[in-house]
């Protein structure tokens, strides 16, 4: 029972925002700018997968073939060394089994030689790979936060466009009621003119007022169409008027709950700080060795022969000295960390100020609208009394038109005050990050 009471208490606070859900979710799905951000997120996510893949082996195939003439060479006196021995052996064996050999000259450059191999490389210990993966993850998170921030802004714009559309619709209704009153006054005035109770000039004044009302209705209709077109642009589809009219903004909005979430802009700065700290950490690992393994499987031979081989190697790369360049890079990265932390502090102060300002503006707008609502009843009562006296010939048409104008203006000002309250409500919902963003 206790949870039911709590639910009933907080549910009305979220219902106004939920009324906009349909249009907002359509915009999140169809808006071209959101889709562009989504593609950018896909690219950032692919960067994470690539960073993970760097831990695995890579293999490539290569072949080298060379023809050579000239260059350095070496004389090999093979004939001078072996021919005396071969001559002695031929004498002993009474045969020519051991032919004479000429001296040779070999060039250092390989001629008609090929080397074909598959090289497999595997990182064994590369600290930079872990840092790179963390950087890619932070970049993807920043991109997600950018999408959330844009969606939140899009939700606010949709709320405000729908509020303006409905406000124009309500104003058109007010002018329609005013037109009905003026038409009734015109009918009564015609009757009074026929009976000689008033002058014909009164009829002209009423007709001028009717024309002015029709002009206001035309202007408001144009404002409605503009708001509807803007909603269509935001949602990426044609929005029907019925979709907007289903959102009720005639009553004053309730005060939203206190914010519990953090704006995406602050979270983006936090991620940026983490990335800069990774840059500092990278420079701290300057003297840590990098170790990798390499395996070559292939064949190399002259004259297109086949002579397979396998070669396994372990390599280590160790930085010894760079004239303090890495220390200066570390100092620069740390300065950027300090700068971003100061920027975050300032941004949080701005966000808090915006929240406090927007909630005060909302409370003030609600109180102003309540004050205007009381004037409607008073001005309506005044109009009814003046109209009754006018039909009896006890009031002139100027008093009637003035009472009608006061009643119309009271309704319009109340409508504008309610619209202003809803606009302030949408600003607070945005500044306080209350609306749930996927």
Could you give the topology of this structure?
Layout: H1 2-18, H2 21-30, H3 32-53, E1 58-66, E2 73-76, H4 78-93, E3 104-107, E4 113-125, H5 127-194, H6 201-235, H7 241-245, H8 264-284, E5 290-302, E6 308-317, H9 325-391, H10 397-431
Antiparallel strand pairs: 1-4, 2-3, 4-5, 5-6
Helix pairs in contact: 2-5, 3-5, 5-6, 5-8, 5-10, 8-9, 9-10
CATH uppermost class of the largest domain: Mainly Alpha
**What is the percent of helical residues?**
55-70%
Task: Return the CATH architecture of the largest domain.
Answer: Up-down Bundle
Based on CA atoms alone, the radius of gyration comes out at 43 Å
Order of helices and strands: HHHEEHEEHHHHEEHH
Looking at CATH, which topology of the largest domain would you report? Outer membrane efflux proteins (OEP)
- Number of self-contained structural domains: 3
Q: Which descriptors would you attach to this protein?
A:
alpha+beta; 10 helices; Outer membrane efflux proteins (OEP); rod-shaped; 438 residues; 6 strands
């Amino acid at each position: 029972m206790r949870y039911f009471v709590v639910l009933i208490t907080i549910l009305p606070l979220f219902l106004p925002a939920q009324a906009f859900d349909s249009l907002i979710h359509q915009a999140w799905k169809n808006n071209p700018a959101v889709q562009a951000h989504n593609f950018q997120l896909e690219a950032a996510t692919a960067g994470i997968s690539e960073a993970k893949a760097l831990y695995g082996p890579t293999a490539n195939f290569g072949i080298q073939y060379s023809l050579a003439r000239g260059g350095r060479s070496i004389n090999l006196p093979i004939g001078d060394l072996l021919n005396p021995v071969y001559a002695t052996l031929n004498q002993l064996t009474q045969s020519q089994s051991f032919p004479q050999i000429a001296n040779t000259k070999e060039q250092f450059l390989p001629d008609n030689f090929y080397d074909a191999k598959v090289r497999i490389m595997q990182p064994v210990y590369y600290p930079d790979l872990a840092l790179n993966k963390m950087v890619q993850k932070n970049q993807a998170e920043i991109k997600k936060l950018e999408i959330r921030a844009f969606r939140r802004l899009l939700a606010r714009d949709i709320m405000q466009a729908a509020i303006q559309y409905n406000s124009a619709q309500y104003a058109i209704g007010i002018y329609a009621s005013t037109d009905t009153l003026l038409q009734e006054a015109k009918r009564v005035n015609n009757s009074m003119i026929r009976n000689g109770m008033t002058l014909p000039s009164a009829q002209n004044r009423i007709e001028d007022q009717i024309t002015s009302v029709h002009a206001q209705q035309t202007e408001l209709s144009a404002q409605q169409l503009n708001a509807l077109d803007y909603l269509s642009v935001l949602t990426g589809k044609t929005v029907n008027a019925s979709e907007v009219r289903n959102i009720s903004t005639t009553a004053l909005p309730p005060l939203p709950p206190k914010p519990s979430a953090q704006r995406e802009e602050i979270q983006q700065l936090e991620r940026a700080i983490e990335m800069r700290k990774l840059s500092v950490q990278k420079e701290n690992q300057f003297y840590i060795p990098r170790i990798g393994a390499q395996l070559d499987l292939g064949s190399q031979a002259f004259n297109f022969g086949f002579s397979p081989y396998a070669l396994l190697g372990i390599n280590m790369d160790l930085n010894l000295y760079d004239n303090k360049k890495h220390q200066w890079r570390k100092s620069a990265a740390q300065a950027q960390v300090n700068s971003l932390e100061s920027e975050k502090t300032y941004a949080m102060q701005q966000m808090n100020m915006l929240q406090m300002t927007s909630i005060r503006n909302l409370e003030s707008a609600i109180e102003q609208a309540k004050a205007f609502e009381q004037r409607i009843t008073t001005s309506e009562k005044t109009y009814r009394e003046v109209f009754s006296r006018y039909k009896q010939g006890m009031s002139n048409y100027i008093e009637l038109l003035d009472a009608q104008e006061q009643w119309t203006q009271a309704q319009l000002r109340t409508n504008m005050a309610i619209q202003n309250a809803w606009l302030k409500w949408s600003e607070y919902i945005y500044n306080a990050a209350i609306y749930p963003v996927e």
